[in-house]
Specification:
Blueprint: E1 2-11, E2 16-26, E3 33-43, H1 49-71, E4 73-76, H2 78-83, H3 87-96, E5 104-105, E6 109-115, H4 128-139, H5 145-155, H6 159-174, H7 177-184, E7 192-193, E8 200-201, H8 203-212, H9 221-230, H10 232-247
Antiparallel strand pairs: 1-2, 2-3, 3-5, 3-6, 4-6, 7-8
Helix pairs in contact: 1-3, 1-4, 1-5, 5-6, 5-10, 6-7, 6-8, 6-10, 8-9
């Protein structure tokens, strides 16, 4: 049973168009919600099949980056998504219209997705105009590697892997731990002595260091991963906040 949906079309700055449909589906027991994300492409037929494949993949990556960053929509598995855009299928579409200038309709991609984490479900109710604006903005610029990294982190099923990727994004923005801690804890209210060298550090830096440097770890890996899981939602929002500022994105 579908409980909410979004259907929107947007231009890819002259390369073609993409239609996006996001539908929230509820199970018969009214307990588990999941999303079905459908992407349909209409691209310029004068492009070669390799160019069309590259364009479609670029659109796909930017759309998924935007959905994850703006709506916390997590599609899986990413490896299979890219395999759907095979040269054979693209070449077949081109052979059907070898002399016309009609748009090329690529096979739709259907992705199963969720919002947030498996244990947290909420209604999908985005502001359509706002989301369309974000999508157009993403498609009009080169892809941001840090947004793809953010998406990769949220796609991870492992709390420690997600934590390390998210912290690495902060490190890419601020270069070193001292700057990171000063940015995420300007009032120095959350800092405690490092179990390794005694220097004050935030819990985010402590957990990152214990995950990355096992020889310096003073407690069990199970305890460290448990704290990483507890900090999961906080570090997601912190990284999102600082990415918006660093990349000068609309809030």
């Amino acid at each position: 049973m579908s409980t909410a949906s979004l259907k929107t079309s947007f231009a890819d700055t002259g390369l073609g168009q993409c239609e996006l449909i996001v539908a929230q589906v509820q199970s018969q027991n009214n307990h588990v919600n999941h999303l079905l994300v459908t992407l349909s492409f209409q691209l310029d037929p004068t492009r070669t099949d390799q160019q069309l494949q590259e364009i479609a993949r670029e659109i796909l990556e930017k759309v998924l980056n935007t959905l994850t960053f703006r709506e916390h929509i997590i599609c899986d598995p990413p490896e299979n998504i890219r395999n759907n855009l095979s040269e054979v299928r693209l070449s077949y579409e081109l052979r059907q219209k070898p002399t016309t200038r009609e748009v090329i309709h690529l096979p739709s991609i259907k992705l199963h997705a969720k919002i947030g984490t498996p244990s947290i479900h909420r209604q999908f109710a985005p502001d359509k105009t706002r989301l369309e604006s974000f999508l157009r903005g993403a498609l009009s610029k080169p892809e941001e590697p840090l947004l793809r990294a953010y998406r990769s982190a949220l796609e991870s099923q492992d709390a420690s892997a997600e934590f390390i990727i998210l912290y690495a994004i902060l490190a890419a923005i601020y270069d070193d731990q001292q700057k990171i801690d000063d940015q995420i804890d300007p009032g120095k209210k959350e800092r405690t002595p490092s179990p390794y060298n005694g220097k004050p550090e935030t819990p985010f830096s402590r957990v990152r260091n214990e995950l990355a440097h096992p020889n310096n770890r003073k407690r069990s890996l199970h305890e460290v991963v448990g704290e990483a899981a507890m900090l999961r939602s906080r570090i997601r929002e912190l990284v999102r906040e600082h990415l918006i500022k660093h990349l000068r994105l609309p809030p």
